[in-house]
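Bench notes, bay 3.
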Amino acid sequence: MRAAVIRAFNEDLSIETVPDPVCPENGVVLKVEACGVCRSDFHGWTGEHPKVKPGDILGHEYCGTVVEAGAQAKHKVGARLIAPFILACGSCPACQTGVSNTCASQIVPGFGTPGAYAELVAVPFDHNLVPLPESMTPALAAGLGCRVTTAWHALTDRANVRAGEWVAIHGTGGIGLSAMLLAKMLGAQVVVVDVVDEKLEHAKSLGADAAVNAIKENVASAIHDITGGGAHVSIEALGIEATTNASIDCLRILGRHVQVGMPAGETGMMTVNMRDIYGKQLSFFGTRGMPAWKYPTLLDMIERGQVDIRPMVSREVTLSGASAELAAMRGPTPPGTAVITDFTQ
């Protein structure tokens, strides 16, 4: 099969012909129809993720058609499926109590096992996979990736966002834009924060109530003014110290901060405003992924038109084009996300 392989960190991926994956007994092999290009991939491509090494294949936001099924697989050849990026074992206490995104035996393609920047991908624990709605294109399904699902879990299960509340979102990349669209669907008021005016205007055109440019304004002061006392919920969508502290500082008393952005490499250790957390009696939540059992409800909600996530996907690229998308993440990126849909180039 054709695949995009890391041969050296921070260099273009190598487009190679590599052996087809072996079908797991408890899973399937998918012919990849689309795969998102995610900032988490960027951290692997730069060498900041401990599980990514030269010779690996990235790609954890994918959908496809089953071309081979193992003896213990749940799904059959021909099924069109979408995959959560966390493949949970299904039998441990975390899985049995509904929090499979915390499974200690989880497998994440692209981070320790070959991912979906390739024509084929092996998927163990295929009970995690969910049928792809007929009305949903592969590009849109891959665009859900970890960004829409992670944002949904962050807003509903972690922060318990309620209608009428103010939600601040720091960073309007894939996660941030997803969180904005979903928070509006939940009836919240949303203020977005970024350093790129084009992305802020894009978010406002899609429904954001207010926008703050972090270069031009003091974020916390601006949000306190906009919201009349501070946000009820603040979503950090980058994983860096500056935005984490801005998220904490912009909250009102008893506010809820949700750390969605992945702190990677040197940003993994931060100095945060513990005085505000203590003094304002804030709640500080971490979150990662979404349990697989929540996928059907989210997909059904999207299919019925309760939320339009089509603005999430702004670019469809070739397999070889993934390198340019990753390199662009070194600086401010344009609105929307990129999805690989052509694996022949």
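Next record in the batch:
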Amino acid sequence: MSWQAVTTQPCELGESPFWHPQEQMLYWVDIPGKKIMRTCGATGPTESWLMTAPHALEPGCIAPARQGGLVIALRDGIYRARTWGSALQLLVPFAHDTTTTRFNDGKCDPCGRFWVGTMYEPRDARKAALFSIDCRQGGRPQVELKADNAITANGLAWSPDRKTVYWSDTPNHIIRAWDWDETSNVMSAPRVFHQFPAKPQDWQYGMAGYGGRPDGAAVDVQGNYFVAMYEGRRLLKLSPAGDILADIPTPAQCPTMPCFGDDDLRTLYLTTARHKRSAAELADMPLSGCVFSMRMDVPGLPVNFFSD
């Protein structure tokens, strides 16, 4: 197995990739670049959609909508775009302090609700949370707080049997799991799925002794959880029990999130970051910030669509 570069023009911080089966396109975001990106593959052009006034804000995550277009989490709320590049419709405003808090990782559950977590940028308190947004009944969206007591929301994913939800807090190096009832949208039986060692206090790029921290994730049809280990230069495959089954080196020090795509869902796509990385790191890994792909033996789960 080897990684192939899908793009050669890097993002600052690529995140939230998904494969759109009807459009046969890969989507992702560049958070600090305030752009949504898409491409039809390594041989096709990459399109970018810059978030401009009055919504010139960072897109933390995106998901495809069943009726076309996207649902987009910007810094201050959840928006709906009916087509690529169209005007944004505000679905849900949020009252958090946008000078310290923005939306980060998110995706739709198998029922069509949009789940999105926040990031508390000062990172000195556990003020990040996870919400679900249900627009399936029309009228006013139903917003529920699902989890909190975190710093940076990441790693959101569901098991193939739709009975387990995963969520991680990146700075605390922890992935948690809950039992989940898809009809009632109730989470129960919280537990630690995997706890990773903390970052050594004096660690710098080039040093040994640090394996990274859990960022975005995806799940295959066997229930294995693939997590990008930010700053660890690796992608881990964890069993449904939380055991490490594979440790896959990545072509960037900071992988951010995987997803499965192509017709057979056996291509694993991976976004990466170069934002605020050292000159030495970028000289060693100049394609940091690009999207990469690798063929897998086992297919992954398809993207879930937003229902409104």
